[in-house]
């Protein structure tokens, strides 16, 4: 089948006092109907800017999509006018943000906001919209939807607000859902419930999900495929099984090593030494070279291409094969 979302050579830059800085630097990514794809990496790697670019929500200025295409069901979103994007956002493609307080309006009740979203995209009466809003809240596991409908965002817990956000995001049955760190601000139990909710949505309605996260536990739990981002580029891509059992990029290997052993432990046994490089348009060579324990001469000179290592498994590294690590 055709991908429902296909990002091609996306480059998004920010104008700074030091010139044009590429936050997303030539990203290719495909999302097929019914799939959950994880986009992982440390903060600042460009994953959120990738998702904002897809929705054409990059603050501009200083941000700008300077190259590439974003095909949603075959139609490139990059050249579209804001008015056209408004018809697509919330309808064909929706986004769930980390902090629902920033996307919920504090001045309106949950019901008013849900109804507004519904009526923006569908010709339905107020009464119908209200009925649908109540049923959406029930769908996302809110036990007293009739009560919540007349409440304001600040009256709800963080977990409840995230459920409301999801209800709004799925209200018009989007074909693509982008979730940017949707559970990061929540405690572990609520986190699991929210992930279950997204997975159920994906299974039941075939909604394709792009899951932006720094948490490999979330990826293992939720995703079919995963793309690992580093310094604005995808450095590895493959099925979740490939990535976890045979990582081919040293950065991915480092990320996997740094996953806490105990599910409820926040202690990291390992963290990748060093920092994400300061991005600039003059960067050359492999972006990970300054932190890589396998670095070779060529690495600082030439940027490796993303190449296929086994069917559907890609890595951007000069090493032909990454040495396997002994189990820790
Ligand atoms: Fe390390 Fe070189 Fe591979 Fe970059 S290309 S990840 S520096 S081995
Ligand atoms: Mg982010």
UniProtKB/TrEMBL annotation:
Coiled coil: none annotated. The keyword Nucleotide-binding applies. It is found in: Cell membrane. It is a peripheral membrane protein. It comes from the Bacteria. SMART domains: AAA. Keywords: ATP-binding, Cell membrane, Membrane, Nucleotide-binding, Transport. Its main location: membrane. Residues 5-256 form the ABC transporter domain. One of its GO terms (molecular function) is ATP binding. Belongs to the ABC transporter superfamily. This is ABC transporter ATP-binding protein. The lineage of its organism: Bacteria, Bacillati, Bacillota, Bacilli, Bacillales.
């Amino acid at each position: 089948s055709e991908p429902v979302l296909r990002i091609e050579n996306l480059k998004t830059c920010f104008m700074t006092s030091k010139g044009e800085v590429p936050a997303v630097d030539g990203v290719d990514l495909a999302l097929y109907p019914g799939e959950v794809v994880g986009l992982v990496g440390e903060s600042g790697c460009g994953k959120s800017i990738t998702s904002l670019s897809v929705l054409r929500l990059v603050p501009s200025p200083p941000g700008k999509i300077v190259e590439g295409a974003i095909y949603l069901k075959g139609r490139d979103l990059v050249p579209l006018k804001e008015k056209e994007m408004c018809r697509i956002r919330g309808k064909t493609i929706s986004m769930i943000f980390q902090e629902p307080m920033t996307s919920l309006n504090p001045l309106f009740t949950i019901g008013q906001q849900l109804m507004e979203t519904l009526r923006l995209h569908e010709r339905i009466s107020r009464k119908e919209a209200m009925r649908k809003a109540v049923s959406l809240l029930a769908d996302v596991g809110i036990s007293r939807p009739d009560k919540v409908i007349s409440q304001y965002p600040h009256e709800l817990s963080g977990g409840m607000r995230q459920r409301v956000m999801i209800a709004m995001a799925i209200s018009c049955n989007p074909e693509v859902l982008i979730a940017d760190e949707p559970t990061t601000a929540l405690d572990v139990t609520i986190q699991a419930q929210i992930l279950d909710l997204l997975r159920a949505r994906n299974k039941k309605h075939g909604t394709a999900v792009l899951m932006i996260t720094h948490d490999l536990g979330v990826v293992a739990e939720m995703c079919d495929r995963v793309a690992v981002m580093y310094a604005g580029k995808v450095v590895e891509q493959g099925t979740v099984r490939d990535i976890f059992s045979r990582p081919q990029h040293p950065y991915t290997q480092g990320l996997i090593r740094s996953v806490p052993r105990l599910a409820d432990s926040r202690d990291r046994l390992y963290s990748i030494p060093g920092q994400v490089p300061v991005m600039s348009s003059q960067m050359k060579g492999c972006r990970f070279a300054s932190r890589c324990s396998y670095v070779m001469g060529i690495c600082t000179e030439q940027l490796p291409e993303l190449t296929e290592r086994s069917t559907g498994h890609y890595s951007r590294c000069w090493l032909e094969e990454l040495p396997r690590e002994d189990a820790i």
